[in-house]
Each structure stands twice: as C-alpha cells, then as structure tokens.
Amino acid sequence: MTAKTKSQITAIVASALFLASCSNAVVTTGEYAQTVDGIEATCETYKTGDAVKLVEASGEFNTQPEVTFPFPLEGTGMETNVIIEGNGGPIVGSQRVGMHFAGYNASTGEQFQASEFGGDQYIYQDLIPGNSPDFCAALTGVQLGSRVAILLSPENVHQGEGITTLGLGPNDGVVFVFDLVKAFLPKANGAARAAEAGMPTVILAPSGQPGIQIPNSDAPAEFKRSILIEGSGEKVAIGDNVTVHYTGWTWLGEEFDSSWPRQAPAAFDVTNEGLIEGFVQALDGVTVGSQVIAVIPPELGYGDSPQGTIPPGSTLIFVIDVLGKD
Prior knowledge:
Mean pLDDT: 90
Number of helices: 4
Helix content: under 10%
Shape: elongated
CATH architecture of the largest domain: Roll
Number of strands: 18
Largest sheet: 7 strands, antiparallel
Order of helices and strands: EHEEEEEEHEHEEEEEEEEHEE
Number of domains: 2
Strand content: 25-35%
Structural class: mainly beta
Distance between the termini: 21 Å
C-alpha cells in the first residue's frame, strides 16, 4: 500500500535514540483513559527498587527536569520509579507511546541525550514485549501523564558491550527520565458490531491480529465498509494523522501487507496524496478504538497497475484498527 509513513524511533540497541517530529506536545490524556479501558496488559507491571528511588527529577510534568542522583548508581537489573503520577490511563504494552526523555550515564552522571521537554519534539517508542531494552516491562502499569525514572543495568541496556557513540562503557548502566505525554492503543477496543452481509469474516488472535474467511462469491463491484468494533474516541477526519494496525488481502485471499508481524503500528496522513482512495474512505469518520473492514474495488485501489505481489485489477480487503491520532 502506498502511504506516507511517520518517522519513529527505535530502542537503544548499539545505537542512539532517534527523535521523531510531532505536530505538538499538548498533553491530552483523557481520551486514552477512556479508550484503553478493559484491555489486558501484555507485559508484567513494572518493578521498582531502592537504587532508582535515589533519582530525583524536580520540576513540573512536561517541563525540563533537573535530574540528580548519586553516582555510580547500580540497581538490580531494571528498576522503575514514578516521580509524578498521572491519571491518563495505564500503559498496557504492545503499543506506541510518545514521551519526552533525558538519558544519563549511571556511572558518571553525565547526560548523553535528551529531548526538549514541553517543546514539539518527543520520541515515539514501540513497547515490544521482550525487546532489549525491555521498555514494555519498565513502563507497563504506569499511568499516562506520569514522570518516571528508569535505571537499567549494563546487561539490560547494551548487553555489557557499551555504546561508544553515547559515551557508555561496558560497565555503564543508564538512567532515563521519561515524561509520558502520548499513548496509542495496542488494538481496537470497543463495542462489537455485525458486519454487512456478504463481507469477509474476520477472526481475531488474542493479540488482535486479524485473519479472514472470504465468501465463495465474486468480489463486490462497489466499495463496502463495515465497523466491526466501534471505539469511543474521536472521529478521524480527512487530513488527520492516524496510527493504525492493518492487514491487506486480495479477494483471492492472498495477504500482501500487514503491520502486525512487525510488532509496530503504522502512521499515515489520511489523504488521497499519500494513500489509495479506498483506504481513505475506509478511515474517514471512524472513531479511535474502532476496527473496520473495507472491500476496495480496483478503481479505488491500484486499478490495472500491478503493485508488488498484487496483480492488476485486484479487489482489495483491509482490516484496520484505529489506535489513535495526532
């Protein structure tokens, strides 16, 4: 599928964190708390420790903190301490979060990287269970709108190999201070709705990843859309930037693209300049938290032009989970 993808960051794994540009840094936590209600966590709740409680980060949430701690600071592996507790809904894992951050060498106290707290630059981090570092385990259970300190041992942050570009030696752990300003759902969450007659049947794995059963009939000649799960969040409008999980198939049942195996959602501007017209129609007016299935005829897809493994003249099927929008 042709789309303008949004930049994102990766965890520290032998390289630096990368900042992602966002439209603004306004903290709007109320809707997330509503839409995440009832979703089970995919990682265990964070664990604290005596060492991380020695980290102080003064100042208000979403403002530049003054961070101090005794060094060298050593903990038990991975420790989290909530310094300012928000009330915007719990982090549940397997999701994308946006945060301001500051990172410090736990052995020397030196800052090696930071975003501009309160500004329009913050990082996106995908909380993938078992990743290294395992920010999913470090943040699950923390409320959106919180400021947290995280202490990571050398083994947890760089497997004891160091990261030269960040000035981290093999024996240096890391202290992070995060202000959690944004969170997206890990999957659709809301009221179940029946699909229109003749639409493919969607079968969901526990993770939320969809599979389909296609009717033994000719593909519809016209665009069709059904809301399978109706979320309670804001409506998507043309021009919005949305974060979604999606899978696409041809009417013959061949899967050609999916965000689910990558364990990271995709972000798109909902415009005909960046997406096929049928994908835009599938998202227009859908609320955050919803899952939609759309059957897209060739003239609203790729027409008679082949696209990767998609044959010319293909009718497309998309199942899309709307996880949030900026």
